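Support request, please re-run this one:
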Amino acid sequence: MLSTRLARLLERPAILRQSLRGIEKEGLRVDQAGALSTTAHPISLGSALTHPRITTDYSEALLELITGTHTTVDALMAEINQIHRVVATTMPNELMWNHSMPAQLPADADIPIAWYGTSNTGMIKHVYRRGLAERYGKTMQCIAGLHYNFSFDEAIWDLLDLKQETPQDRRSAGYISLIRNFTRYNWLLMYLFGASPAVSTDFLRGNVGNLESLTPDTMYLPYATSLRMSDLGYQNKAQSGLKLCYNDLNMFLERLYDAVTTPWPAYQAIGTHRKGDWIQLNTNVLQIENEFYSSIRPKRTTGPCERPITALAERGVQYIEVRCLDIDPSEPVGISAQTARFVDAFLLFCALEDSPEFTDSGWCPESAENFAKVVKQGRQPGLSLQQNGREIPLADWADNLLDQIALCAQTFGQTLGDSTYVPAVEAQRSKVRDTQQTPSAQFLEQLKRAGGSFHAQALSLSKTHAQSLRKTGLTTAELAAAQTQATQSLMDQEAIEASDNESFDEYVARFHSALKAPSPH
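Re-run finished. Output below.
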């Protein structure tokens, strides 16, 4: 069936040429010694609230760089590189930490929560982050990642012979089908691209779990691929009952709606205010939809004060957000063009491959178990996974998947006139044959050769990348455009703050009331 759909896709090459991809890349600001910056977001970078390309995530020190959408990987990589050069040249005394696991952190209380100004729009972002601190602690919120956003031209869903009546419903069903397959096979991404097998003891705050000691300041697991995506990372016990496997958009929206409207006893005990100040937006399982933790999300751009659930229910899925990629510490921008092309081909495979609906006893629990096993022991010799109730060696399954993904890469390459798609997939085979070729093994080997300190190795790589980016620098036109964009963002924030005509309490109430229950189908 996959080959038949790919053949049909080759007859309509304009479909893949209209696919769009974008990147959101996080990274902590640190000083030259690798300690977390406790200073305010640099005004030279503009407003974190309104700048379209440079903002912050959880912490004031956690930068988030956002590209536009692009029809080619080359254009995407050019923009993410340019944004990194803007940051590197604008922050001569600081570095962007180029690893998913955090830098040297101060005491939890001293990690600064992101600040977006005094407007209601800015304050709701800030209070949401206060709530995250109350629920999970600030340390966990300093973990960074790289999100890969992707959309297909709507015509691709015609190739799946979906039964939904409207183009919007077919598009949503197509993306949910993709997400089901992504959930089945995302362990492969963690094996091939996971790059966080070790962590600083400083980050663990004494909670070492089953980790092994490499040096006094570094813990690791010998066969781990991505401790970031393991149970060491950002997890929400309250939402553990939120099953990540779903068969249609409405099922997903109903579960998400329940989570953002159902109180959780531990959060009720915290309350929404302390000494008259807001400390979380509500006491529900999730404060807002963004708190939902998963390796992939269906997405839709929202308007002012519009809730994601409402936007998805009314206008359907617009694109997907891949959230499980570690920052590649060997790449100055955290991802290579080769990896991006592989992800493109992988997502095309997930879209076109048959995607049976989940059952509670079938693929769903198996997929979660496979993912958890690979992030903590993916390089273990002879490791087997579960495939439809039977054991299969990881290497055998990976080889089979790469065969099919290679066909998708070939189709991408032919339609885009890009001869590097197929080599991007073929390059992964060496990692399957030899676990020492994986990024996680490579980083661990570098770590051991350099003396075993995670902090020292990550800092050294971050400095090297910063120097490289600064050496390239910015053209006169790029510098002028960056300065104009930063100045405009500051003016835009001032305008938003001046236009507020209601109290924050009123704004929060209006924000919550904007949430609409999804209509049952």
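The chain has a mean pLDDT of 94. Residues 2-513 form a domain with the Creatine Kinase; Chain A, domain 2 fold (CATH 3.30.590.20).
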